[in-house]
Amino acid sequence: MAFPAFWDRGYKKPSDLAVDLCRLWENHAVSVALVSAVDPYPTDAGKKVVLAGFLNYFADRYGAENVHYIKVGTPPETEFPVCLHVVDGPSRAALMRNIATKVTRGRASLQEAFLGSSQTAAAISRILGEIRPALHVYDTIRMAQYAPADVAANQICYLDDLFSERYDRMLRAGESHPDVDSNPLGNFAEHIPRRLRPLATYRVTQTVLLRAERALVRRSEDRVARAFRRCVLLNDIEAGVLRRRTGLQPGRIVSVPPLVATSVSSERCYQGSPEFVFLGLLSLPHNDDGLRWFLRSVWPLVLSRLPNACLKVIGGQASPELLASAAELTGSVSFAGYVADLGSALGMAAALINPLRFGSGIKLKVIEALGCSLPVVSTPVGAEGIASGPGSGVLVGRTPAEIADLLCTLTDPVRNAEVSAEARKHFSATYSRQAVFDAYDAAFVSH
User: Fold this and answer.
1) d(Cα 277, Cα 350) in Å, to the nearest integer?
2) Helices marked H in 28-98 — which ranges?
3) Which of 60, 166, 197, 199 is found 20 to 30 A from 440 (Cα to Cα)?
């Protein structure tokens, strides 16, 4: 396995070195399997960032040759950093059978039904039997269905966000804001037959789907939490919600920070340009809605005070409606698509905007901005689960006028430097590689 360079770690006392040496001995030849239907690369969406971070951590702790990624569905198109195993996803016949026998009877959610089959289960079981990993990590309730009861009792399920909470917020956002398009598919659409996708695009069927799926997913989340040795989430607030729902002890349901592949920048030197950035995959309904609302309600207020202001949108899959909205704003909005090097892309901006009106879980774009020492201006929803307010580098506005004022204020280089330093300190304390790995050690290794 890969041996770490202990001499580069700057140990202050022998006991620290001893702990690492013992960990290395204990973990020698231990293998890990992560089961998912998502290809983590490129890391152009929050879900992918988290999964890639898990693989980074496991490879560091156990050696890449001892880390196995079991991918359900189409094979990845890029080179993989750990051992890859691909199994076929469910056939169309299996999908329809699942809907008829499981979803309609309340035995499974739609997202479980679209990814469940006996053939896939047999293939995963065969691979796990060959690998015999000490640690299994199943990616959300979709993959948790492939863990037999005796396996689940000793293994881990990564629950991501609570989808039941996400769907609940989508429904409430639709009631509060009639203009919200709460298409529930997002980047899950690739797993759904094309003929069925239009059902999620009409307001009436959207609402029916969300209400039904909210109840089914909640039942599955609670069932999985009780079945697995431990469930891992990103948001401590949602971990608390699940603990209250299930009555389980804190050690059974934990939250961890994501590992964001960016380094703390000490070279940021903002010069006062009125340039702002939006970051996020635009096929996700909360990103699409939030950006369209921002362009309609906030950006004109900024332009009235800063006529030369520009907004760079980083993220792919923009809808025609979003592109049309941006086109009406006299060239002040540009779309960059997916950008691999966020450090250079964010370096000259005054702030990241995060104008979400609904959604759940931690927004990784905020952490990515903090990692680049970039101030963040957010709605309360966008900052949920992340420390915000004075001293955090994350400023929260509740109205269009408040958000516009915060953005304009950050074009002052002195003020920007203050908030930038706060963002850098926040990232170092909570989201640095060492801080995240310590949290992962507690979540994935300790019993």
Assistant:
1) 8
2) 46-62, 92-98
3) 166
Q: Where are the domains of the chain?
A: 31-256+436-445, 275-430
Q: Between 18 and 110, where is the model more confident?
A: 110
Predicted structure pTM score: 0.79
Q: List residues bridging with 25 in a β-sheet.
A: none
Is the pLDDT at 313 greater than 80, yes or no?
Answer: yes
Give the Cβ contact number of residue 446 at 10 Å: 9
Say if CB 283 and CB 185 are below 8 A apart. Answer: no
Q: Which residues of 359-395 are buried (b: 16+ CB within 10 A; e: fewer)?
A: bbbbbbbbbbbbbbbbbbbbbebbbbbbebeeebbbb
pLDDT of residue 121: 95
Q: Can you tell me the distance from the alpha carbon of 191 to that of 345, in angstroms, rounded to the nearest whole number?
A: 32
SS3 313: strand
Write down the CATH number for the domain with range 31-256+436-445: 3.40.50.2000
d(CA 314, CA 80): 25
Domains 31-256+436-445 and 275-430 share a fold: yes
Secondary structure E strands in 123-236? 135-139, 156-160, 230-233
Q: How far apart are CA 287 and CA 332, in angstroms?
A: 19
Token pair, residue 141, equals 């309730």
Provide the 3-class DSSP secondary structure of residue 67: strand
Percent of the chain with pLDDT over 90: 56
Class in CATH terms, 275-430: alpha beta
Phi, psi of 414 (to 5 degrees): -70, -50
Closest CA to 98 of 119, 73, 117: 117
The pLDDT score that the predictor gives to residue 80 is: 94
Beta strands in 109-155 (DSSP E): 135-139
The whole-number pLDDT of residue 7 equals 38
Across residues 75-83, what is the average pLDDT? 93
Rounded to an integer, the average pLDDT of 23-51 is 82
Weakest-pLDDT range from 46-60, 193-207, 261-275: 193-207
As a whole number, mean pLDDT of residues 339-355 equals 86
- pLDDT value for 19: 56
Pick from 221, 404, 224: nearest CA to 300 = 404
Q: How many residues does the chain have?
A: 447
- Which distant-in-sequence residues (6+ apart) come within 8 Å of 136 by Cβ? 32, 33, 34, 35, 128, 147, 151, 155, 156
